[in-house]
Amino acid sequence: MDRFHEKPNVFVGEVSINVTDVSRSIEFYTNVIGLRVLTQSAQQAVLTADGETALVTLEQPDGVMPKQGKTAGLYHFAILLPERKDLAVFLRHLLQTGWRFGAADHYVSEAIYVDDPDGNGIEIYWDRPSSEWKWKEGLVDMATVQLDGDGLLAESDESFTGLPAGTLMGHLHLHVSSLPETEAFYTKGLGFKVVSHYPQAIFTSIGGYHHHIALNTWNGTGVKPQPHNAVGMNWFTLLFPSEEMREEAITRLNELGAAVDQFVVEDPSGNRIRLLV
Predict the structure, then answer these.
(1) Domain assignment of residue 110, yes or no
(2) How close are the terminal C-alpha atoms of the chain, in Å?
(3) Domains in the chain, number
(4) Is 70 exceeded by the pLDDT of residue 259?
(5) How far apart are CA 77 and CA 4, in angstroms?
(6) Which of 10, 24, 122, 131 is the most exposed place for a label (fewest CB within 10 A)?
């Protein structure tokens, strides 16, 4: 049972991304990824796995621009499946679609990576039991090694009927312009803890998870935010367990000089966050 995406933790709930053609994206996210449409309008679609909870919102802004290189913003959002067999079913489905993908074993998890038609990065993964994760001096042991694809496929021969109802938004990985400044925002401001280091990247979490939010400067330091009408991330939500904890976070963010307006704040790299309870 996943305990890292429920009270008393703070975690990512939903991600909103810009796309160039919402109809094409709906087709991809339903047929290839296996999400379902919750609500839809001419330029927007809200997607779900369980028929109730919004996980991904697709937006086609006026004057939409293609994905811009060398900016801050989305590296990938990561959809967490309940069990290993769910990832096996998804992998077989992906092989049948012929859609290009990457794969990796991260010790704490097994993951499959795809880009949507606009180049937005998506990870689909499952977590190994947290009892198997290895920690040393407050840091979790993660790596990127080859996925045992055959072993994974042997886990299940079920047909793919979409992502299971227990699917969650597992974590988010962002391009940022400055690691020290952004680390202070997420740790001192929002209360996350650094649990892993990687070249030009840090991984942060709350409650002993391997990471809820990862931050990197792989697009370069000092990069600008993406234009608001460009392909990429619009915003993401952080879910707080109580009004009190949200207010405490807002106070800390204000002390860091981050302006919170109607429970919306931007990190130092311009990534927009909706602070929800």
Answers:
(1) yes
(2) 22
(3) 1
(4) yes
(5) 16
(6) 131
